[in-house]
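User: Some background: our group keeps a shared notebook of sequences we're curious about, and every so often someone picks one and asks for a predicted structure to add to the entry. Today it's my turn. The entry only has the sequence so far, pasted here. Could you supply the structure so I can complete it?
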Amino acid sequence: MTLNKYLKRKDRETFAELIGTTKNYVNLLACGSRIPSRKLALKIEKATKSEVTVLELLFPEGKS
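Assistant: Of course. Here's the predicted structure to add to the notebook entry:
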């Protein structure tokens, strides 16, 4: 599942606090404008209970 799809049913501000970043940065990650560090990707995977995986975050489809 993509982060954007996951976040459609979550509060982005609360999610940002949970992973230790800002709502604005979460929005950039969700729309694919940024790729998270490995450390942040691991936090996201843990926070989403593996619904969004590190591989999906670091190697999104259609991106080189």
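Suggested note for the entry: The chain has one domain: 3-58. The two ends are 19 Å apart (CA to CA).
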